[in-house]
Write a structure and sequence with these properties.
The protein is of the alpha/beta class. The protein has a single domain (15-221), classed as Rossmann fold, CATH 3.40.50.300. The protein has nine helices and five strands; from the N terminus they run αβαβααβααβααβα. Strands 2-3-1-4-5 form a five-stranded parallel beta sheet, sandwiched between helices. Residues 26-214 form the Deoxynucleoside kinase domain.
């Protein structure tokens, strides 16, 4: 089943900023929900896909080993990396498609940070939000935590071996909360990535692209 939700209540404060930076799609979902696969689908359709360079973050392995202990430096670094990747990309008439989302960054932060650390993260986040503004579209990939865990086990990354079902459930809940908050300012397209095989099924791939194209068109009319 495919379901989409488009919200058109955005207010554009700076047309130049929107034209140069806001023409992007962010893909949001839990671990192993299909974010990179979806970004590749968009890349093959002519979008400019940007992939999270997670191996360049020096703390990511430590984070998976102990998410509580290493949350602050990990979340700050990933968020700044995402900001830098988008900021440095040349302006283009094509939409960027990021296999990450700032909503996911905030979900991770609210899961793992408290008190002054969370306040510091939110201060950085707000500065990024001011400069980049909202994306043209967020693709929300919903996936059952049990299926995500199966996918994690199947791909066999040693660094992910300590990820638990409870962690995946908590992350998916945190993502859903961020999506709900964003609906009044950002168009959201929600896709069940467990039921829609956009990795290999050509019919599903075509339908996904149609959904994205339609969502972008509706969003642009509402600016």
């Amino acid at each position: 089943m495919i379901k989409g939700s488009i919200c058109c209540m955005r207010i554009c404060k700076d047309a130049t900023q929107i034209n140069k930076i806001n023409r992007r799609i962010e893909i949001c979902g839990g671990i192993a929900s299909g974010k990179t696969t979806f970004a590749t689908l968009l890349a093959n359709a002519g979008f400019i896909s940007i992939y999270e360079a997670f191996r360049e973050v020096p703390f990511w392995k430590a984070f998976y080993a102990d998410p509580v202990k290493y949350a602050f430096e990990t979340e700050i670094t990933f968020t700044l990396q995402h900001y830098h990747q988008i900021k440095k990309h040349p302006a283009s008439n094509k939409f960027l498609a990021c296999d990450y989302s700032f909503l996911l960054d905030m979900a991770y932060a609210e899961m793992g940070l408290k008190d002054s650390q969370l306040s510091a993260f939110k201060a950085v986040y707000l500065e990024i939000e001011k400069e980049l503004s909202a994306p043209a579209l967020v693709v929300h990939l919903q996936c059952d935590s049990e299926i995500e865990l199966d996918r994690i086990c199947s791909r066999g990354r040693n660094v992910e071996k300590n990820i638990t079902l409870n962690f995946l459930r908590a992350l998916n809940d945190a993502v859903s909360k961020q999506i709900e908050k964003a609906k009044m300012t950002t168009p959201i397209l929600t896709i069940d990535s467990a039921k829609n095989n956009f990795a290999f099924d050509e019919t599903v791939k075509k339908k996904m692209l149609e959904m994205v194209t339609t969502a972008l068109a509706v969003g642009e009319k509402c600016q």
